[in-house]
Amino acid sequence: MRRYLLLLAALHGACGVAFAAIGAHTGVAASVTTGAQFQLFHAAAAFGALAAIRSRWTGAGVLVLLAGTLLFSGAVYLSGLAGVSLGPVAPTGGLLMIAGWFILAAAALRPDPPRP
């Protein structure tokens, strides 16, 4: 599971860089740059959390964090690039990102499992 979460975080990072470049070089809506920033920050946070804390709570927190980031940034990208509104998808993604941070905070407070 951890390897898949690292893969997802890496893909978020790559997409964040790509969309930041699109935002910087095409003159599209500023929301594209905002989406890229959120995606990059949360990809880095996911890597950090996975490196720092080893528990199933960490995996759950990272999964919720990245799912929320996908919803939020994806909705912002569609809005900025195509003028398409997905209704409450961006706010739902934002709430999931917040929930992911709270789950990671709870994971940080739990004792570390024994290492083999």
Automatic annotation (TrEMBL):
Q: Mind telling me which InterPro entries this protein's record contains?
A: DUF423 (IPR006696)
Establish whether keyword Ribosomal protein is in the entry: no
Keywords, A to Z, come to: Membrane, Signal, Transmembrane, Transmembrane helix
Q: Where is the signal peptide?
A: 1-20
Q: Which domain of life, per UniProt?
A: Bacteria
Gene Ontology CC entries for this record: membrane
Give a yes or no for keyword S-adenosyl-L-methionine in this entry: no
Membrane disposition: Multi-pass membrane protein
Subcellular location field: Membrane
Primary location class = membrane
**What residue intervals traverse the membrane?**
36-53, 60-83, 89-109
Pfam families per the UniProt record, alphabetical = DUF423 (PF04241)
Q: Which family does it belong to?
A: Belongs to the UPF0382 family.
Family annotation (PANTHER family): TRANSMEMBRANE PROTEIN 256
- What is the name attached to this protein's record? DUF423 domain-containing protein
Organism (species) = Pacificimonas flava
